[in-house]
Amino acid sequence: MELLLNHRTIRKYQQKDISQEDLNIIIESGIRASNTGNMQLYSVIVTRDQVNKEKLSPLHFNQPMVKQAPVVLTICLDINRFNKWCDLNSADHGYNNLLWFVTGVIDSMLFAQNICIAAENLGLGICYLGTTIYNAAEIIEVLKLPKGVFPVTTITIGYPDENPEQIDRLNLKGIIHDEVYTDYDEVAIAGLFAYKEELESSRKYVSENNKQNLAQVFTDVRYKKVDNFFFSEKLLKTIRDQGFDV
Amino acid sequence: MELLLNHRTIRKYQQKDISQEDLNIIIESGIRASNTGNMQLYSVIVTRDQVNKEKLSPLHFNQPMVKQAPVVLTICLDINRFNKWCDLNSADHGYNNLLWFVTGVIDSMLFAQNICIAAENLGLGICYLGTTIYNAAEIIEVLKLPKGVFPVTTITIGYPDENPEQIDRLNLKGIIHDEVYTDYDEVAIAGLFAYKEELESSRKYVSENNKQNLAQVFTDVRYKKVDNFFFSEKLLKTIRDQGFDV
Lengths: 246, 246
Known about the structure:
The first copy, chain A, has helices at 2-5, 20-31, 50-56, 65-68, 80-88, 98-121, 136-142, 186-198, 200-208, 214-222, 225-241; strands spanning 42-47, 71-78, 125-129, 149-158, 176-178. With 246 residues, the first copy, chain A, is of the alpha+beta class.
């Protein structure tokens, strides 16, 4: 519990390798997570080779963790392996659709999160890279992923070389709804986000970016509408190119 | 680590309530999971009321855990709350697309898995219901989810009233790929799945369902092609109805 409550993302790592034994137990913890029908529709690509890290780095918009971490894990949803088993058994599979794409994302993330918790339990630090689905097409090429395999997220892992402050979260009341969803009026929204707007780091973001408020830093700087729709189109095309009828 | 490695899905619960205090610490553990840009694009609907459980039960194909568990959590991706904050700040959001739908699923599942691990840490047992995305439209109605909010998964939680055997998993070598994806040939597939086909429980499935082999139990009985495509279409329609431009 302590471990979960004290989680911090670690972006700087010591130049110290992770043993294969430790990595195996970490991934073993991952496969113990719940999954749909015990079909295990996921795979993990382990990148230790610096040359491959250099290839992946720009696809994650040059976030320094990719080149710096001893181990980079690309977590993929994988219907290829299961389908091949079906083919071998004259079983007429039909998993190349939206339902099983989403199911695969769900199962991949349970696998991923168990991996992260197991890693932290061994004193390692982790960072998730949400950029994986932005440049899935290029990542597929680098990692030679066949049809039916799709990169969902990337985790960099290593021994921590920093000890950052824990970052803020919304109050629990802002997340929990009893029995039915209670929609937020303007007063509720303003109340929920007020603490965040007042953080020193938030004020800095706003002034550095010459914005009127923190929300505009998100919409005009960090995650812009034009980019969101561009990468959405690209993602859809890549999902189809990987053989999913979406 | 023990906790992760010993995970079992629990489907029978004691008739003993979960205190609000325990539930809060469990959900607090959830919000400590990593999430994209610290935008916290998720909400959780807590169902304790028996009348609401009765409404949800058929939407999960009458799996008995829904009516029997003291607490049912429906984990939702939620861009509604964030968008309302943007609206209040004249910030032009653009998150109603595939990129952010998938991002929301990812973040919701990290939230969900931390919740499950925290619950198990308190001696509770959990079961994931993958059926949530099959009947998302009806669940949206029961839980009164506004546009921008989408149910991703459901977790039933309670004190265990059973102690099941741990179920099988593929060998780690079947999941891990070093540096690049190594595709499976027929020999590799047959070798990976052989142990599973030989399990007593698998043989029983095959004979009870009059199938030739275990793979056909999956494709012809458990997750049939015609159902997969039917529920895929339904899922796509529901995603669009909830305001996502997919």
